[in-house]
């Protein structure tokens, strides 16, 4: 082989991806309810961002305006 040779190869990860997905679904279990999980997550965020003092609210609003956090204050009663 000369110095101008190239080594090329292809690797098909389809089977490994199928195994990974199967393992994830087995670990989650049959009783996993993604809609319920998302609803719980929304409730957790609502709790996290509720009852902020004025300084925390100011920082939250700045982070929302900067696009760092999503605006979760739709329907929030203004003080």
The total count of helices amounts to 3
**What is the terminal separation in angstroms?**
77 Å
Pairing-aware structural class of the strands and helices?
mainly alpha
Q: What coarse outline follows from CA principal-axis ratios? A: flat
Helix content: 40-55%
Main sheet overview: none
Q: What is the rounded Rg? A: 24 Å
List low-pLDDT spans.
none
β-strand amount: under 5%
Q: Give the number of DSSP strands.
A: 0
Residue-averaged pLDDT, rounded?
87
Description:
This protein has 79 residues and is mainly alpha-helical. It has a domain at 32-65. Helices cover 53% and strands 0% of the residues. The protein is built from 3 helices and no strands. It has helices at 14-28, 34-48, 54-65. The longest helix has 15 residues, at 14-28.
How do the helices and strands line up, and which of them pair or pack?
Blueprint: H1 14-28, H2 34-48, H3 54-65
């Amino acid at each position: 082989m000369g110095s101008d040779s190239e080594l090329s190869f292809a690797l098909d990860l389809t089977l490994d991806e199928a195994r990974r997905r199967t393992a994830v679904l087995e670990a989650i279990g049959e009783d996993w309810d993604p809609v319920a999980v998302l609803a719980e997550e929304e409730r957790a965020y609502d709790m996290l961002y509720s009852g902020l003092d004025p300084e925390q609210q100011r920082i939250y609003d700045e982070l929302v305006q900067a696009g760092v956090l999503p605006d979760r204050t739709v329907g929030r009663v203004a003080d």
